[in-house]
Amino acid sequence: RENYLYDAEFRWERFTASREYANQQADQYREDIRNLAALTVKKNTLWCVTSTLCMALCVALYCAGRLGLHGPSPPAWIMGLWLTNNAAAFAYMALCIFLAIHASFRAQAASTQLLTRHTRVPVPTLKQLDSARKFASEFEQ
Q1: What is the largest CA-CA distance in the chain?
Q2: What are the tens digits of pLDDT across the range 10-63?
Q3: Which residues contact 85 (CB under 8 A, 6 or more apart)?
Q4: 54 in Cβ contact with 93 (< 8 Å)
Q5: Rounded distance, CA 73 to CA 66, Å?
């Protein structure tokens, strides 16, 4: 009977140690998911900043109205091509900002979904708890 009770303590310690390891593993998974989402958000934030600066440059060049402010103006067909390309660059930068913001939001949403639905903290069931603990009255069973 003494050996049985002595072993019961070790059984409970093994059970609690395994639960602690499972909790630590779940915490590592959750931290990895948070880090991946943060990496995506940070990268897309840099894309937004860069695209905004490029858009500001396009606006500054577009507002000047023509090339060669300190000399003769280029031919009209060159100015037409340049202004068209400048407007296209502005549109592509606006699209880049939109897609970067969308990707950041999607990364955050995916992170939230994974954290709340797939990598939950492992909680033991009643059956697992009952099998881990032993009472002295169960000695002869």
Answers
A1: 107
A2: 777 888 888 888 889 889 999 999 999 999 999 999 999 999 999 999 998 888
A3: none
A4: yes
A5: 7
Angle between helices 2-64 and 76-113 (to 10 degrees): 170
CA proximity to 53, closest of 93, 101, 99: 93
Is residue 103 within a helix (H) or strand (E), and if so which, with residue range? Answer: helix 76-113
pTM of the model: 0.71
Token pair recorded at residue 22: 């499972």
Q: What is the DSSP letter of 115?
A: I
Phi, psi of 128 (to 5 degrees): -65, -40
Which one-letter amino acid corresponds to residue 14? R
Predicted confidence (pLDDT) per residue in 78-96, tens digit: 888 988 999 999 999 999 9
